[in-house]
Write a structure and sequence with these properties.
alpha+beta, single chain, 170 residues, 5-stranded mixed sheet, 29% helix, globular, 4-stranded antiparallel sheet
């Protein structure tokens, strides 16, 4: 009887951990992440409707990237937002910064975080030139692009079988 009292909290803790692990495994992917994961190299595709208003800017940030380049649209506001959040990019995550038009302050900026799946998101022109196997004629990579013009290029990395995802226009 005494053993039962001691074992019950242990069983509860183990059950709680098992439920947490199950919940983490079944986490639903964001529709944007699902869309990217389904695309195959070499593809240039429009984005599905995500409900973002016209004029919304999308700015992808790859692994280890903690801020937008100074030349990117809205870089000052976005980088201030990221600094306020104390965001630091790392190997396991990439971000999509969503900047809604005609608004003031940080309320117009949203950061979506995604786990690094079977693809890498890059937007640095030097990395694209070095790593991308194929960039089709007519596709222009951009640090930020409006939802109306946004196209996604999925290609392969030159020295690996990993997919590369690049946002731009065509």
């Amino acid at each position: 009887m005494q053993e039962d009292k001691l074992m019950m909290p242990l069983f509860r803790a183990a059950g709680t951990l098992a439920l947490m692990a199950l919940g983490a495994c079944s986490a639903e992917k964001h529709p944007f992440d699902r869309h990217l994961a389904q695309l195959r190299p070499v593809t240039v595709a429009a984005l599905p409707d995500m409900g973002w208003p016209p004029g919304t800017m999308l700015c992808p940030m790859g692994i280890y990237q903690s801020e937008l380049s100074d030349s990117a649209p809205h870089a000052d506001r976005v980088n201030a937002f990221l600094k306020q959040k104390k965001f630091l990019g790392d190997e396991g995550l990439w971000s999509l910064i969503v900047v809604t038009p005609m608004s003031e302050g940080d309320a117009a900026i949203e950061q979506l975080l995604f786990k690094r799946g079977d693809y890498d998101v890059i937007n640095d022109p030097q990395l694209i030139a070095r790593d991308a196997e194929t960039v089709p004629a007519g596709f222009a990579p951009h640090a930020c692009v409006t939802v109306e013009q946004a196209r996604v290029l999925v290609t392969r990395a030159q020295r690996s079988r990993r997919k590369l995802v690049i946002l731009g226009t065509s």
